[in-house]
Design goal:
Length: 436
Amino acid sequence: MSKIDAERMGVLSNDRVMLRLDDNRVVTIINISSEFPEGHLGVYREVKSRLDLEEGDILQISPVQRPESLGYIREKILGERLTPWKLGAIVRDVVERHLSDIELASFVTALQIHGTSMEEVEALSRAMVRSGRTIKFDKGIILDKHSIGGVPGDKTTLVVVPIVAAAGFTIPKSSSRAITSPAGTADRMEALSPVDLRLDQIKEVISEVGACIVWGGSLDLAPADDLFIRVEYPLSIDPLLLPSIMSKKAAMGSTHVIVDIPVGIGAKITTRGQAEQLAMNFIELGERLGMSVECVLTEGGQPVGNAIGPVLEAREALETLAGRGPEDLIKKSTGLAGTLLEMVGENDGQEKAQKILSSGRALEKMRQIIEAQGGDPDKRPEDLAVGEHWVDVEASRSGNVLWISNRALAHLAREAGAPGEKGLGLLLHVKTGDKV
C-alpha cells in the first residue's frame, strides 16, 4: 500500500487489515511503500488465491485489531509459563498467518531463552496436530523412525523402512527435504521414485506394500511446524525440536517410534549427558501423546556411510540393501530396525533385521515401495546418473584420520551442487581411524 493511503487509514507497517471481495475475506499484514501508486494494492500470490482476485478488482480494506495471541507471546517474552489454551491460540494464529515474521521470531526466541516445561511442550504438540490434517490407517500398529539430524550422509531411513516392512509391519515414513544439509530423506528417495504423494495415494501405497517414503511438505500435517522452522533456521535455534518431531508423528497415527540421536563433535548433540536428557524428554512426551517411544544414541562424529548427496546416497542405500554397503551403515540401520522390531514384541531384533537384509527380502520390499510410489523397481545403483565431472582429493601426507568435520563436508557437498543438482556431492574413501 502507498504511504499516502496508509496515512489516510491511520495504519503502520505490520498492522493488520482485512481485505474483502464479495463474500470472501482475509486478514493480512500490511507493508507500506513510499513509491507505490496511490489507490492501488499489491498482494502476495497466497492472498490472490484465497480471494480469487483478478487484476483490477475493487477491494474493501479496513483495519483490524491485533490478535489476542500477541499478549500471550509478550507473557512468554517476560518468562511466564503459558497455559494450553494460550499456546493453542498462538498456534492457530500462526497457521492462519495472523502473526508477522517479527512476532513469530519473538515467540521462538522467547522459547529458546526461557525454555519450555513438559506441559507446554505437550500443549504445543497437541495444538500443532490440531492445526492440520491427520492420517488414519486401517492398521493397529504403526511404526515410525526419526533422526534429529545434523550428520551428513544419513540414508538409514532408506534401509530401515524396507527391513521393517519386510518383517510384516506397517511403517509410513514422511520425510523432509534438505534445509541446511546436502540431502534430506525426501531428496534421496526422489532419486528412486516420486515422493510428492497425496494422502489418498499414501493410503493406497500402504494398503499395497505396507510402507512408503514420501515428502511431508505437501500433506498439511502439523503445518505450524513448517512456519516455525522458517524463522528458526536464520536464527540457528531449535526450541521446538520436541513438538516439531512428535506432532508430525502423532498426525501420521504412529504408535511406536524410534528416535535416532547422533552424538559427537560436529553433531547437533555433542555430549552423552545432553543426549540422555533429550531421550528422556522424547519418551515422556511420547507417553503423554499415547505413543511408545524409544531413543537410540548413535555415532554422530562423522558421516554415515561414504556418500553425501541425493543420488550418491540413494545408490549407496540400494547397494546396502543388495548386501554390499558400508559396514557402519549396515550396523546402524539394522540396529535401528532391530530396536523397532523389539518394541512390538520381536526377540533378537537386530539379528532378525540382519537376516532380512542378508536374505534380500529388504531389497525386494524396497523395489515394491519404489514401484507403488510410481518409480522404476528395476533400477540398479549404476543406473542412477551422477555428476559427469569429478576430482580426486589426495592427502598431502601419510597418517591416520583422527577427526572429520561434519560441517565442512556438508558445506563442500553443497558447494559441489547438492541438493539442487541431485547427482552431485562427495564420496569419502577414508573414515575416522583409517590409515592414509
